[in-house]
Design brief:
It is a single chain. The chain is of the alpha+beta class and 117 residues long. Helix 1 (14-28) runs parallel beside helix 2 (76-104). The radius of gyration is 20 Å and the shape is elongated. It has a single domain (2-97), classed as Ribosome hibernation promotion factor-like (Double Stranded RNA Binding Domain). Strands 1-2-3-4 form a 4-stranded mixed sheet, covered by helices on one side. The chain has helices spanning 14-28, 76-104, and strands at 2-8, 33-42, 52-60, 67-73. Helices cover 38% and strands 28% of the residues. This is 30S ribosomal protein S30. Keywords: Ribonucleoprotein, Ribosomal protein. One of its GO terms (cellular component) is ribosome.
Length: 117
């Protein structure tokens, strides 16, 4: 799984980068993801407030739709944790939905008899 991390308005330290990677591996390591892109930003800058944003785009394998999750919190680590948990749930729903639709398209099981002509 490739993880790309970008930041805007805050310093992307080695420890922050490691935290994001570890958290996403834990949350989404089970999924068949090709690529994760994470954007971290400080919306209000030095004014403070609930302004730390974590946005995660999950590109799934096998041409499936991407999942995009965004969360804003006062604490950047809380925003990362919450966005990772929400991404985990969204990916699970997306894969379950895809599995359910593919099962509905299958032809009825053969009754074991001779083919009808």
């Amino acid at each position: 799984m490739q993880i790309v991390i970008q930041s805007n308005g805050l310093e992307l330290t080695d420890s922050l980068r490691a935290y994001v990677k570890r958290r996403l591996q834990f949350a989404l390591g089970w999924a068949l993801t090709r690529r994760l892109v994470v954007w971290l930003s400080d919306i209000n800058g030095p004014r403070g407030g609930r302004d730390k944003r974590c946005k995660i785009q999950v590109s799934l394998a096998n041409g499936r739709k991407s999942v995009l999750i965004e969360d804003t919190e006062e604490d950047l680590y809380a925003a990362i944790d919450r966005a990772a948990a929400r991404a985990d749930h969204a990916v699970a729903r997306q894969l379950a939905r895809r599995r359910r639709f593919s099962h509905e398209k299958l032809p009825p099981a053969d009754s074991g008899g001779e083919p009808q002509h």
